[in-house]
Design brief:
- The chain is of the alpha+beta class and 328 residues long.
- It contains 11 helices and 9 strands.
- The strands form 3 sheets. A 4-stranded antiparallel β-sheet has the order 4-3-5-6, covered by helices on one side. A 3-stranded antiparallel β-sheet has the order 1-9-8, with helices on one face. Strands 2-7 form a two-stranded antiparallel ribbon.
- β3 (211-214) and β4 (219-222) form a beta hairpin.
- 29% of the residues are buried.
Length: 328
């Protein structure tokens, strides 16, 4: 993923029908094979217990380090808001709007966000020129200007030139990008619900009507509306919805917040049932634990931050809590 593009990473992966000895013999200037062994099954998305991060932050005012340590200690004690980081929404931060247009079957809006709307967040002036050309109605010029590495945009424009149909453009792009855009729309809605709970001070506290996530088992459990003080034998945290057509929704005050955010954004859970979407939905913890956290002053304005997060949680969210600014 692009979020690891400027990192030194250690990852497990599955390689089919290759002898471990051959993998151990791989030589590459930017890749080192540490170990290779046979296994009866392949690694799938989410088949890991968590992600371990070591991040160096430069240009730090030494006077700010004690406050950052306190903020980190608070995250360890209370949990980190489990929001989606900015990279979830693409370079121009509008991937969720593409997803919204897909779910709502607004194909003109889909093309507008995919191919037009130049943004200063895209550093290449040629890309901005291509988007401006599309907005001006010059599809051929836009197709010629987009760089080759922008395969989705190039394919979309060539399909549009051939068929004149925005919906045909959508189908020509295949399933993988549409899943990413729809997930971005779900993530945006989730973030909106999380922000409401944070504003109320209840993101890490179970309320009657919540659907709790039991950390020990990974199970979800509804909290009865008549439970005056919800409690469990194991650690449990409230969850928010990743919207879909077949999803358990919270009731009571948590349910009111969920419905209010979806209504505000014009999101109908039933719209995820459409054949081109078919997203059942899921629940996601509103807060997650931060483990093995430390902040080390290296001197010369550098600090080294270490921590472990569960799968699917964003290191950039933790960084924003410490730095107090958006991290991409």
């Amino acid at each position: 993923g692009l979020k690891d593009a400027r990192a030194l990473t250690r990852q497990y992966m599955s390689v089919r029908r290759i002898a471990p000895e051959r993998l151990l013999g791989v030589r590459h200037p930017r890749v080192r094979v540490i170990s290779a062994t046979r296994h009866s099954g392949s690694i799938k998305l989410g088949h890991h217990r968590g992600n371990r991060f070591t991040i160096r932050i430069r240009g730090v005012d030494p006077a700010a380090i004690p406050a950052a340590r306190k903020a980190l200690e608070k995250l360890v004690l209370e949990g980190m808001p489990n929001g989606y980081g900015a990279q979830r929404f693409g370079i121009r931060l509008d991937g969720h709007r593409i997803g919204q247009a897909i779910v709502g079957e607004d194909w003109s809006l889909f093309l507008s966000h995919l191919l037009g709307r130049p943004s200063p967040l895209e550093g290449n002036p040629k890309i901005r020129e291509a988007r401006a050309a599309f907005d001006a109605g010059d599809v051929e010029k836009a197709q010629a200007l987009f760089p080759l590495k922008h395969r989705a945009e190039k394919k979309a424009l060539s399909t549009l030139l051939r068929t004149g149909s925005p919906r045909e453009v959508f189908h020509a792009l295949g399933k993988r990008p549409r899943r990413i855009w729809i997930a971005a729309w779900q993530s945006f809605l989730f973030n909106g619900i999380l922000e409401e709970r944070l504003a109320q001070g209840t993101a890490g506290r179970l309320l009657p009507g919540d659907i709790a996530y039991l950390e020990a088992s990974g199970a979800f459990c509804p909290v009865p509306e008549d439970a005056a003080a919800p409690s469990f034998q194991v650690r449990a945290v409230p969850t928010g919805p990743l919207a879909g057509y077949d999803l358990a929704w919270a009731t009571g005050e948590p349910g009111r917040i969920e419905r209010a955010v979806l209504d505000r954004e014009g999101a109908d859970p039933e719209s995820f049932r459409a054949d081109h979407v078919r997203t059942r939905g899921n629940r996601r913890p509103l807060v997650v634990g931060v483990r093995e956290a430390s902040l080390e002053d290296e001197g010369d304005g550098n600090v080294r931050l270490r921590f472990v997060l569960p799968p699917g949680s964003f290191a950039t969210v933790l960084l924003e809590k410490l730095i107090g600014a958006s991290v991409r």
